[in-house]
Amino acid sequence: MQRDLHHLGEQNILELSGEDHKCRGALVSFLKPESLKQYVGKMDEEVKKHLELHWQGKQQVKVRTLMLPKVRHMELISNVQPNEKALVNAYNSQEKFIGIRVERGARKDKFVACFQEMIEGMWSIPINLPLTRYNRSLRARTRVQNMVKDLIREKRLELEQKGASTHQDLITCMLSIHNENNEQVITEKEIVDNVILVMVAGHDTSSVLITFIMRLLANEPTIYAAVLQEQEEIVKSKPSGEFLTWEDLAKMKYTWRVSMETLRMLPPVFGGFRKALKDIEYGGYLIPKGWQVFWVSPMTHMDSSIFPEPSKFDPSRFENQASVPPYCFVAFRGGPRICPGYEFARIETLVTIHYLITHFTWKLCADNSFSRDPMPVPTQGLPIQLVPKKTF
Fold it and tell me: What is its subcellular localisation (predicted)?
C-alpha cells in the first residue's frame, strides 16, 4: 500500500472517498459508453495498422512481447505509432481522454523513458537506497510528475486563452470544474496523481487479458470455432474495409463472455488493499479503524458455491450476469470502486480479438505454464506459430 502512495500519489481515486472523491466523476464521464462510441473507429484503425506492421508476414511471434504495453500510454499520448514492443491496442485516441500531447523528439523520448523506469521499479523490493531499482523508480516518478505539471499548465493556458472545450479531454475537464464561487475544485496535485494513475492502470491489464484469450483459443478448438463464427458473421454483415462500430461490438456477446471467463480464472489484478474507515466486525473478527484489508480475487472467483466447477472454463456462466452474486466477480472491482475504464477495456479487447481471429490462425510453441510478476506472465512470452488468412 505504501509503495502505491509513493508512486500513484495520495490524491489518486483509489485512496479517496466521500467528498474527496471528486476526480472519479471526471474519469467516469470520459469513460462512459456515450463518450466512447466515437472512438471505436479510431481503435479499429490503430489495431489494423499495428497488426499489418508487426504481425502480418511473420511466421512466429511472442504474443506477450507484442501485447506488452511497456510504453503504451507514452506512445498514445505522443501521437506516434506503436513500436515493436507496444501493445496492439495502444490507441492514439486515448490521448483525447487524458489531454496530453507530447511532440515527437527529445521531449517524448524523455517521457517514455521516465515512465518505463517508474513502472519497472513499482513492484521491486521497497528499499529506498541509492542505486536500487525502487529508488530509481521513485526518482523517475518525480520526473514524470514534473512533466505532467508542465502539460497541465499548457492545458490551463489553452483553456483560458483559446477557449478550449471543457469536454475535449480529461485534464481540461478537471481544470474546468469550479464551485459556486468560481474557484477551481480539483487541485493540480489531484490532477497529476490521477493522470499517472490512468497511465499505470492501463499499462498491462488489457494486454494480459488478450494474451491469455489467445492462449485459451489455441487450446480450446470448440471455443475458438464459436468465437470465429461470431466474428465472421460480423465481417459478412459489413461492406469490405468498413470500420467496426458500437453496434458491431454489441453483437460480440459470446466473445465477451469468453473474455469474462478468462478474467475470472486469470484476473490480471490478483487483489488489492482497502482501509477500514471505522471499526467493523466480519466473520467474528474485529477489524480496527485504519487497518488495511487485502481482498483477493480467487477467494470468490474460484469458490465452487458461487461458480460450480470453478476450474472448468465455461463462458456460459456469464450469459446472465445478474445471476452472479454482487461483489463475487471482481475483475473490475465493484460498487462505487468499480473500474472507470471497464467499458474501454471491453472495447479494446473485442476490437483486437476481432482482427486477430479473422486474419490469423495460430498454435502454441511452448507449454501452458505461467508465473505472476505480479500479473500473469506466460512461459517464454507465449510464442505462437502464426498463419495469415488474409491481408489487411
Answer: Membrane
User: Which one of 1.25.40.20, 1.10.10.10, 1.10.3810.10, 1.10.630.10 gives the CATH number of domain 205-388?
Assistant: 1.10.630.10
CATH homologous superfamily of 2-31+69-201: Cytochrome P450 (1.10.630.10)
By CB atoms closer than 10 A (0-12, 13-18, 19+), residue 22 is middle
Whole-angstrom CA distances from 343 to 212, 236, 273, 357 are: 19, 25, 23, 21
Give the tens place of pLDDT for each residue, 39-70. Answer: 788 889 888 988 888 899 899 988 877 664 43
Nearest by Cα to 19 from 185, 251, 223: 185
Q: With a cut of 70, which residues of the chain have pLDDT below it?
A: 1-31, 35, 66-105, 163-169, 202-203
Residues 318-342 pLDDT 10s:
999 888 999 999 998 887 777 777 8
Contact yes or no for 35/94 (Cβ under 8 A): no
CB 117 within 8 A of CB 138: no
Specify the DSSP element, H or E, that contains 62.
Answer: strand 60-62
How far from 382 is each of 3, 63, 67, 82, CA to CA, in Å? 30, 6, 10, 20
What number of residues does the chain have? 392
C-alpha to C-alpha distances, 92 to 56, 139, 153, 318, nearest whole angstrom: 21, 27, 22, 31
- The answer to whether the predicted template modeling score (pTM) of the entire model surpasses 0.70 is yes
- Would you say 365 is a known binding-site residue? no
In three-state secondary structure terms, 388 is strand
- Residue 248 is classified by DSSP as H
**What phi and psi values does residue 309 have, to the nearest 5 degrees?**
45, 60
